[in-house]
Design brief:
Catalyzes the thermodynamically favored C-C bond cleavage of (2R,3S)-2-methylisocitrate to yield pyruvate and succinate. Its cofactor is Mg(2+). GO terms for molecular function: metal ion binding; methylisocitrate lyase activity. Pathway: Organic acid metabolism; propanoate degradation. By secondary structure, the protein is of the alpha/beta class. The chain folds into two domains: 11-245, Phosphoenolpyruvate-binding domains (TIM Barrel); 251-295, no CATH class. 47% of the residues lie in helices and 11% in strands. The protein contains 13 helices and eight strands. It has an eight-stranded parallel β-sheet. α5 (100-112) links the parallel β3 (89-92) and β4 (117-121). The chain is globular, with a radius of gyration of 21 Å.
């Protein structure tokens, strides 16, 4: 039954793998998963980790990304995703869902959910999407308190606490670099600078910050879409593709639904659908059947 109902790899081992990956010299690629099945696919294809985006989770609930989701909702969905994969899962924890004490509780809840790491941002609560205008950031000292609270609550030393700063688009890159230094001093393991515009911006950050860095390659935002190889050559340690799988799925779903509405049948869409056999392969139906068959055919020995 190992690896069927839940991943074979323990949460502790996933955290150790994530931390090791961040200092391996090989960039860790973490596509976003909008459900557990997508996480299964991410692992099968060969990526190094899985990301759970706050924007995607909000959208999945039919809500905008403006801080409406709760810790319970985010942790619950993240636990479902982490359960099925042997890869480390990094979760978007927004601003920590409240004051510094809330950020501390968020770390403990995410640890209990089997997550490998989370990121906290320095936006004013409630936050808004990092690639929209009109954001506001808290004073550096407030974010330092948020981070110190999170770090103090950590029980597994390998649980990665990432500090995200949205200051580059508000106060400028130099101010964001200064904040990153303060966040590293507060105990952050990883720095995520939101909405950098081009390779030169990423290079400037890498030159100024000594700890691991994460890049966000989200589509239709403010950042130039750089390849993982380019980011690795600059010296970045991790990259997320937060909304890519949801955008792909929703585009396909909308096109298909419109055709069904107009044509009255899905028969012209079959070559754009995942076949039942492929879905069953991902779900490992055969292994479940074998397991169930073993139970059904099990008999007690004569002397038992």
């Amino acid at each position: 039954m190992t690896g069927l109902i839940a991943a074979e790899t323990s949460a502790a081992d996933k955290r150790a793998a994530f931390r090791a990956g961040l200092t391996s010299g090989t960039i860790q690629r973490l596509p976003g998963a909008f459900n557990p099945l997508v996480a299964t696919l991410i692992q099968e294809i060969g990526f190094e980790g899985v990301y759970v985006s706050g924007a995607v989770l909000s959208a999945d609930l039919g809500l905008p990304d403006i801080g409406l989701t709760t810790l319970t909702e985010v942790a619950g969905r993240s636990q479902q995703i982490a359960r099925v994969t042997d890869l480390p899962v990094l979760v978007d924890a927004d601003t920590g869902f409240g004051e510094p004490m809330n950020a501390a509780r968020t770390v403990t809840v995410m640890e209990d959910a089997g997550i490998a790491g989370l990121h906290l941002e320095d936006q004013v609560n409630p936050k808004r999407c990092g690639h929209l205008d009109g954001k506001a950031v808290v004073p550096t000292a407030d974010m330092v308190r948020r981070l110190r609270a999170a770090v103090s609550a950590r029980r597994d030393p390998n649980f990665v606490i990432c500090a995200r700063t949205d200051a580059a688009g508000i106060e400028g890159i130099d101010a964001a670099i200064e904040r990153a230094g303060a966040y590293a001093d507060a105990g952050a393991d990883l720095i995520f600078t939101e909405a950098l515009r081009n390779a030169a911006d990423f290079e400037k950050f890498r030159a100024a910050v000594s700890i691991p860095l994460l890049a966000n390659m989200t589509e239709f935002g403010k950042s130039e879409l750089l390849t993982a190889r380019t980011l690795e050559s600059i010296g970045y340690n991790a990259v997320i593709y937060p909304v890519s799988t949801l955008r792909l799925a929703m585009f396909a779903a909308e096109a298909g639904l419109r055709e069904i509405f107009e044509q009255g049948t899905q028969s012209g869409l079959l070559d754009r659908m995942q076949h039942r056999s492929r879905l069953y392969e991902l779900l490992r139906y055969e292994r479940y059947s074998e397991f169930d068959s073993d139970i059904v055919t099990f008999t007690l020995g004569r002397n038992q």
